Give the backbone structure.
Amino acid sequence: MNPLARLWLWLWWRCAGRRVVLTGGCRQCGQCCQQIQIQQGRSWLRSRRQFRTLVRRQPEYDRFVISGRDGSGCLLFCCRCLQPNGRCGDYANRPDICRQFPDRRLPQTGARLPASCGYQLQLARPFTAHLARSLSRPSPQPAKERS
Ligand code: SF4
Ligand code: SF4
């Protein structure tokens, strides 16, 4: 997704006042450990130089290896720690990007969960918004009694 489309998507989310609800659980398929995109600040890594800077600051990212680029030029990574059985070979020391997956902000960036993922990210209106809406409605008039 190009940067302008991402911006429109982000604005739509903000205006719609929706929240993302995470349901389901991990099936340990290992798909999220392949074709990884890494975000630094608000932007995705696009150059080797940016990646080297990240590794200098956070050496735990050294496990990632550049494997290609997506359609919009962002770097894609694979991970040295991914085992053939789809499990993590360094689970205790995995970086924050792995601990936070799946991040609830994922849909706002236009990214999707892998098809085999056991989690679901769904759009929902927060309960407080439903409550405020029903409280703002006029209460129904009591039916008149017949004489
Ligand atoms: S460190 Fe572990 S959890 Fe993170 S991408 Fe690598 S294999 Fe997956
Ligand atoms: S893609 Fe989803 S189900 Fe598969 S390992 Fe990652 S979090 Fe677990």
About this structure: Residues 3-16 form the longest helix (14 residues). The chain is about 25% helix and 20% strand. The two ends are 68 Å apart (CA to CA). Residues 33, 63, 79, 81-82, 88, 90, 94, 98 surround iron/sulfur cluster (ligand 1) (CB under 6 Å).
